[in-house]
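User: Hi! Is it possible to get a structure for several chains at once, not just one? Here's what I have:
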Amino acid sequence: MEHRPAPPPSLPHPQRRRWLSRRWAPYVFISPFFILFAVFGLFPLLFSAYVSLFRWDGAAGLEAMTWTGLGNYAYLLQFEDMDLGQVFTAGFWRDLITRDFWRALWNTLWIGVVAGLPQHLVAIPLAYFIHTRVGRLRNPLLALYFLPFITNIVAISLVFEAMFSSNFGLVNAVLNGLAHWQVGGFTPLSAIFPAEPVDWNRPDKVPWVVAFVVWWRYVGWNVVLYLAALQTLPRDIFEAAHVDGVSAWQQFRHITLPLLRPMMFFAITLTVIGSLQLFEEPYVLTRTTGGTGQVAETGAMYLLKTAMTDGDFGTASAIAWLLFALVALLTWVNHRVFKPKD
Amino acid sequence: MNLVVPAPRRVGPWLGQLSAYTVLAFGAVLMVAPFWYMMVFATHSNTEILSVPPPSWFGDQLLVNLADLLERRPHFWRALWLSLWVAAAVAALNLLFCSLAGYAFALYDFKGREPLFAFVLATLMLPSFVSMIPTILLMQQLGWINQARALIVPAACGALGIFLMRQYIQSAIPRELVEAARMDGCGEFSIYWRVVLPLLGPALGTLGLVTFIGSYNNFVGALLVLREQDAYTVPLVLRSLQGTTAVAISALAAGAAVTVLPLLLLFALYSRRLIDGLTAGAVKG
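Assistant: Yes, the chains can be modeled jointly so their relative placement is included. Here is the combined structure:
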């Protein structure tokens, strides 16, 4: 740097003053992100923490805020009228999920697990199979699996709603058709599939429908992630094992899976964050209501309802921060479990 | 689940292969079926859709359904145009700002570079709902409720885009090139504009696609700030159709099909690039 050659005389404006020096240029170049984040990211984040400590009807203006400390959190968690001594009884938990916040949390976690776990359980073997066996058809196949991920979820949820309709829906037609499928006088599948149309709007069915749509949307994304990770592994580890007479299953279990750990950490983190933010699928599939008895009302839906319908911005902000704390906790747990060992 | 894992060779490789291919094909059908039925329903009348079994091949009611849709929601085309416009604006701004920031993080040495970049990545982990409530208030204060800019400005420079750009610039643009331009007296912005930017073609294409699709599909953000029907983007219009007393699945399916069509078109043309772009961050990060 200290030995800088003088500008060649042929340059048009050798002495021109730069409006942007080399020293400051990088800061100017990265500033749009930080300005936007400060205004639309950091400020809202801190402000919501502040608001969560007040009782406040958002429509009434800033003057209407009254300090309540952790009151909003206490109102949501309702610890004081719970008998914590009963925590190991089923009644305690049944009672717990009748309370709005806890029910929303339970729904979120339930859908997260029922939709999220199978995503990975299906995606990992599928990616492995595509990696080791599928050659020419790989790209078109991947494109098909990836399609749900890039789709407008409102549009597709509306189609799913029609497909799950109880009297005329395609899903019932297929399931009933399978149940009545006959081979030589027997109906071999009647034990597995329902013979009568299923009422998918029943409270005990709605969460399953939501979970299925969520699974459908993200399983291909996970296949693509795991496949990308597999493609970075050196090919010869597969070939070496092949020569040593290791079975395909052993190779998958003892070589491939451990090498996939870093990607499992990353992919599961995305699933955790995505699950706890889940909004669009249940919102559209239950026509914004969360279903009869709010059986599919997720945390994010409860948050938005509290803010927009009830106008209770303080409580809504407290919900946001409780969910945020949960995201942080689960990410940390995931980190402990799947962190690549150094 | 075990079906998918290739069976040990003792059993005969083709048996395991066959079952695995079956699962793979079944999965592919499952992924595509809703799109297929969306398109099919868009071309049938309501009574046809509600018959048992429902139609599986195209009918001739598409124009009727579209007319029905426009009668129920006269501003549908306007909303579609608005969605496309917002998505294009978000994509264009991201291309500019993310490539600038990515360039700075990749090829400048400056104080605080590493912690600042780590900070950018950390913001990706922030769940969007935490800032929802204050964002509504902020938009009210700014007078941006019902305005397209409420969707464009906050999304103008995404952290993921910066990351993608930095990765690409680090691998594709030699430092010597930038140094040489600087020796020749090129200004800092000119180096970016005339030397770096023209070399970013593939990465810009990927980032443009990703941000365009993300913005086009944005539902929650629009739900928070767009309150009036004439300000709605297309996902909101579709959603609002659901609330009508006599839901016409045919009109809805036609609207959904038109909405998804631009996405399918982009995806058909650029699926490989899109998939690579979205996973590049995951693999390297």
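Chain A touches chain B through 107 residues (CB under 8 Å). Chain A has a mean pLDDT of 83.

User: Great, thank you!
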